[in-house]
Design goal:
Blueprint: H1 11-27, H2 29-32, H3 40-56, H4 59-83, H5 88-101, H6 104-107, H7 115-128, H8 144-157, H9 165-185, H10 188-209, H11 213-237, H12 247-264
Helix pairs in contact: 1-4, 3-4, 8-10, 9-10, 11-12
């Protein structure tokens, strides 16, 4: 049970928000010239900004970024209304119906022992809705690591999966060897294919470790960035440019950055 009462549904604010967006579409030159396609990159950018605030655990910024993301939803709905494609009401009615339909253990009489049961039932419901494959609906535009994870998870819900983590690790080692051979003897296309197979096997291994590969790699990139920027900062403090430093000198500063991080931890 929640520790405090949930606030009332903000229907007044939502109606005001929709009215503002509709007015912007009529009176603002920038908003007026936007299309579904022109908003595509902005939608992705706002989504990544939401993810970044979640990674930082910054709830104040999350509150703002969710508003920016909602603006993109509203703009797409407004454009669709103007073109007679669909209306806001259809968007809301559609998601309401979908949530009720896909949660029979909440809104119906079905039983679910845990999250895994819910996930399996969710995928079965999607097939009943007209999809011909469990893998339909995983966007190609997703980051490849995240897409690989989603594809593997859906296949796993159908029972198509490894049974032991040791078998997954053996597959990773097999793919490493195939990549090593391709790297020395194969053509570029073969090397690329084997590298893809290797990454796919690593994603499988991450699943069995309970790790999201996209989150893990993002954290590692952040760590590399912090350490590299430490090298740049220290060289500037010495009155030097990074392009004039030797690899040995940069390695010393890299080690310093690692020690400083460990000491803070």
């Amino acid at each position: 049970m929640p520790r405090h009462r949930l606030p009332s549904i903000p229907s007044k604010e939502f109606s005001r928000f929709v009215a503002i967006v509709r007015r912007l579409r009529k009176e603002c030159p920038w908003d007026r010239r936007q299309t579904h396609r022109s908003l595509r990159e902005g939608l992705l950018e706002e989504t990544y900004e939401v993810i970044e605030t979640l990674d930082r655990g910054d709830m104040r910024e999350l509150e703002k970024e969710l508003g920016d993301l909602l603006l993109h939803v509203a703009l797409h709905a407004a454009i669709a209304e103007e073109k007679g494609e669909f209306a806001w009401e259809n968007v809301l009615r559609g998601i309401n119906r979908k949530l009720i339909r896909r949660h029979p253990h909440v809104f119906g009489t079905a039983k679910a022992a845990g999250a895994k049961d819910v996930a399996r039932a969710w995928e079965k419901t999607k097939l009943q809705e007209g999809r011909t494959s469990l893998l339909e609906g995983v966007p190609r535009a997703m980051p490849a690591l995240q897409r690989a994870l989603r594809v593997q998870q859906r296949a796993s819900h159908a029972g198509f999966d490894w049974s032991k983590v040791d078998d997954v690790w053996a597959k990773v080692r097999e793919e490493v060897e195939e990549l090593r051979v391709a790297a020395t003897r194969g053509k570029k296309r073969a090397r690329e294919e084997e590298f893809g197979d290797f990454l796919f096997s690593l994603v499988n291994f991450s699943r069995f470790l309970g790790i999201n590969p996209e989150h893990a790699l993002r954290a590692t990139v952040d760590k590399f960035t912090t350490r590299f920027q430490y090298i740049e900062t220290e060289l500037l403090r010495q009155g030097r440019d990074i392009h004039g430093a030797t690899l040995a000198e940069m390695d010393v500063l890299w080690t310093e950055a690692k020690k400083r991080r460990r000491s803070r931890s």
